[in-house]
Inverse folding.
């Protein structure tokens, strides 16, 4: 009766993420920020519907808003994109865990 | 108002062992509240244990002592039935004291 | 421990991953219509921990980290002579005895006048179709008698549940799962929650309390999941105060960098139901003290 070892899904996911993150310029106008922020918020809402939001996402969203308030839209766009990525990772986690939790179950 | 001091002192004829638990916030003055404002320092500065007219234990405390401090010590002497007086004084000038019988 | 997810300022690459089917092998791929067998679960759960710690008696597991580390145990036994939860316990006793404004009291809402009943909670309420925890029952009693409910994560609820746990000290957990598909579903949901990874740090409750009991996470020794609720509520030195089950669940979520659910959310109630059930037979030791 042992707990089964977890597979390496999320570490693989993050490795791929870091490897493939293309150097899209984060420079932005207020409009760019608004778009990026809206996308991040939408993703975070989706995560919320799955009851799996991360505090890191909330922190990134707050940082984005703060940067925008200070007029630093480059930073605001960058933070919004990070928030969106974090939100998507949390969605991925929630969806995959729907089946993967059983791997940890004591039987 | 109930005492902030719980104390138990037991004597084996030779030595008396004392344990005390004191209810006090012991705010260091370095912690911020939910709104971001510093919680002002509020801590016990001196605790005194007196037996038979003599101070058997005196502690000078500062901000590093945690909330609801517990202490334990022993002293030579003290017999069952003797009084042990405990008092504390904090940085705001508040005090409390209690007297317990050694068991 | 499994690695956390660290993300560089990221791009759409993530969506590609999100869309890709998980390639993990579910070694025990659950059949869709799986039968839930709590009795078998509880036996397996117990055997897992007693097998991992053969030197411990079953009732020792309720002492959490103190059964895992001799030095901590020695310090704890000294502290227990004059426990830090004493103030909270006394306050709880007074609160329990004090009548509501309408003259009634907690004793009027609860079985056996509220004394020595903690080991029966949570229970599955057939009328409501949901799990009812002790904290929930206490607040419902208050509201039914015109009193404002207490916060689930603050001192008053902690003091009240401390007193109620104290009156049940030594009694074994006696959680029942009635022959009702909704009760089984609640139990299974609690189990699911327990093993599901969450938060940016990607931990499930099981990551720490099943896979690593007795080991350290930073400076703390991890408690085994078996008997982990028996000492609740606990005075935690880390908190500098008393905390309820609700407080522990929400702070655990935050510690793994997941946004917590509301205290007494259905998932938390089900989680408490599951964890209490698999610890049936182990004695209530609350209120407790922990580092």
């Amino acid at each position: 009766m042992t707990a089964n070892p977890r597979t390496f899904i999320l570490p693989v996911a993050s490795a791929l993420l870091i490897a493939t993150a293309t150097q899209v310029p984060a420079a932005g106008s207020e409009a760019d920020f608004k778009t990026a922020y809206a996308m991040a918020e939408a993703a975070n809402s989706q995560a919320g519907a799955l009851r799996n939001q991360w505090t890191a996402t909330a922190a990134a969203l707050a940082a984005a808003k703060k940067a925008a308030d200070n007029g630093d839209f480059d930073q605001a766009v960058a933070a919004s994109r990070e928030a969106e990525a974090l939100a998507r990772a949390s969605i991925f986690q929630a969806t995959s865990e729907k089946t993967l939790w059983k791997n940890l179950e004591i039987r | 108002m109930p005492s902030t001091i719980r104390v138990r002192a037991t004597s084996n004829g030779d030595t008396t062992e004392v344990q005390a638990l004191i209810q006090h916030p012991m705010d260091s003055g370095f912690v911020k509240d939910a709104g971001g404002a510093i919680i002002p320092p509020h801590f016990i500065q001196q605790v005194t244990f007196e037996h038979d007219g003599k101070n058997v234990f005196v502690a000078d405390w500062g901000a590093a002592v945690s909330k609801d401090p517990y202490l334990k010590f022993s002293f030579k002497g003290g017999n069952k039935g003797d009084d042990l007086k405990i008092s504390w004084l904090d940085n705001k000038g508040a005090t409390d004291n209690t007297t317990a019988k050694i068991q | 421990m499994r690695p956390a997810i660290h993300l560089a300022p990221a791009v759409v690459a993530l969506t590609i991953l999100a869309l890709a089917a998980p390639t993990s092998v579910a070694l025990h791929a659950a059949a869709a219509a799986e039968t839930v067998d709590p009795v078998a679960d509880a036996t397996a759960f117990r055997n897992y921990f007693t097998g991992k710690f053969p030197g411990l008696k079953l009732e020792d597991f309720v002492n959490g980290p103190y059964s895992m580390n001799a030095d901590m145990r020695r310090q704890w036994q000294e502290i227990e002579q004059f426990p830090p939860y004493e103030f909270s316990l006394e306050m709880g006793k007074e609160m329990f005895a004090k009548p509501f404004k309408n003259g009634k009291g907690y004793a009027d809402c609860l079985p056996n006048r509220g004394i020595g009943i903690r080991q029966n909670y949570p229970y599955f309420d057939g009328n409501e179709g949901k799990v009812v925890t002790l904290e929930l029952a206490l607040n419902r009693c208050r509201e039914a008698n015109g009193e404002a409910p207490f916060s689930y994560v603050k001192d008053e609820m902690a003091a009240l549940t401390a007193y109620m746990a104290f009156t049940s000290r030594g009694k074994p957990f006696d959680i029942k799962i009635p022959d009702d598909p909704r009760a089984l579903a609640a139990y299974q949901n609690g189990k699911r929650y327990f093993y599901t990874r969450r938060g940016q740090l990607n931990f499930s409750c099981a990551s720490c309390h099943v896979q690593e009991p007795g080991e350290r996470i930073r400076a703390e020794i991890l408690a085994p999941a078996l008997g982990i609720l028996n000492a609740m509520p606990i005075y935690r030195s880390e908190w500098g105060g008393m905390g309820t089950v609700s407080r522990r669940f929400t702070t655990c979520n935050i510690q793994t960098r997941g946004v917590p659910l509301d205290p007494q959310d259905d998932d938390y109630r089900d989680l408490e139901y599951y964890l209490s059930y698999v610890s049936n037979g182990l004695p209530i030791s609350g209120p407790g003290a922990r580092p």
In short: Chain C touches chain A through 49 residues (CB under 8 Å). Confidence is low (pLDDT under 50) at residues 8-32 of chain C.
